[in-house]
Amino acid sequence: MSDFPSLGLSNWLIQQCKQMGINKPTSVQESCIPAILDGRDCLGCAKTGSGKTAAFVLPVLQKLSEDPYGIFCLVLSPTRELAYQIAEQFRVLGKPLGLRDCIVVGGMDMVTQALELSKKPHVVVATPGRLADHLRSSNTFHMKKIKFLILDEADRLLEQGCTDFTKDLEVILRAVPASRQTLLFSATLTDTLQELKSIAMNKPFFWESKSEVRTVDELDQRFILTPEKVKDAYLVHLIQKFQDEHDDWSIMIFTNTCKNCQVLTMMLREFNFPAISCTR
Ligand code: AMP
Description:
By secondary structure, the chain is of the alpha/beta class. The chain has helices at residues 11-19, 27-37, 52-66, 80-93, 110-118, 128-137, 154-159, 162-175, 191-200, 231-245, 258-270; strands at 42-45, 73-76, 101-104, 123-126, 148-151, 181-186, 205-208. The structure holds adenosine monophosphate.
């Protein structure tokens, strides 16, 4: 396995990686970073947790450091949460550059976002619907000079009500220059993704994880099939068991709606678990 210097990354980026405990490249990084630095479009089929975010963040930051301006890079994410995680990696790894980023997702004030966009951040991380709304309604910013268009978790982007996404993507593709580099990362390679590849990419470098399973080996995944009315009782029991077996513990629970998230938090607090809800 190679190391970061042999992939062509600059020393300052390697030092930033070290600070984050990133010492050796993962396979997706080892394969995709040199191709991206070489100026190629890239289609990566990578597992969640494989280090795919850093596989695009690192080469983009390197290119940005050579010619810093805004807006340099646009990343599309299927969810707000992923958008925040991506922006965080840009922020931490790009700290020595004084990187300015802007997150454009639903549920936030349009005017404030438009103002931030007009300040020409280096990197914009956006959900497609909200960004397309801005492009349709605002003339305070443009994306005519971006060097990188990145679609992260592209399979999930495409899942989200196809017509809306297609319309939003059309608006976004019209706003960005043809002479960009397009990077597309996805856990699965679907037919629609192949279509997207043909409309948005130019002979991309293709990399696919050899493993059939799309999650990391260390992940222990289980499900419990229960009647609806005893679901919460099972959950409380599981948390109690976890608390009894671990001194230092934290658990993340995902719910389908904001309301369910808040109701669950209230219930867990009734059982004296130190719970907070995070809904946006
Ligand atoms: P991702 O697949 O992008 O969601 O990354 C999952 C996690 O792996 C993130 O917390 C990264 O900080 C971390 N990570 C990324 N690259 C490496 C690496 N080469 N070595 C160790 N950890 C890494």
